[in-house]
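User: My instructor asked us to take a sequence, write out its structure as tokens, and then describe one feature of it. I'm not sure where to start. Here is the sequence I was given:
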Amino acid sequence: MTTEVSNASSPAPVVQPNKGIPWRVVALAAGDAASFLLFATVGRRTHDEASGLSALLQVAETALPFALGWFAVSPFAGAFRRSKTTGPWRMLARTELAWLLAWPVTLVLRWAIAPDHSVPFSFAIVILLANAVFLGLWRAAFALVERWRGR
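Assistant: Let's start with the prediction itself. The structure tokens for your sequence are:
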């Protein structure tokens, strides 16, 4: 992104890069974080563990390895690049590719953080599929809203 700035000593506008993080990236990152918190909440409820607002810290701790892995890998997979995520189908395809690439990293992080240092195969599959659905639904909805706003 660039911004045109007038300079008193020069008649032509000077193009300067925008210094801030685009709202789109912030919105996507916030929604992604919420998606991982939702995954952790659902998982904790499924196992009869604390999951309400009073357990927000425990829910965040459960979501941490998945969010860290996602945010470490997904930018390199183009998950935040407008050119790769314009429209619901492109967003969905890029999101799923990025999640597939981030998934092994999240498993290693989950193994490292978990007190028992284990990630059963069945849980690894649940992690893959559930987060693919949560991230995919959220990001496809975001792309739809973005398209509607652009018309």
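For the description part of your assignment, you could build on this observation: The longest helix spans residues 121-150. Try explaining in your own words what that tells you about the chain.
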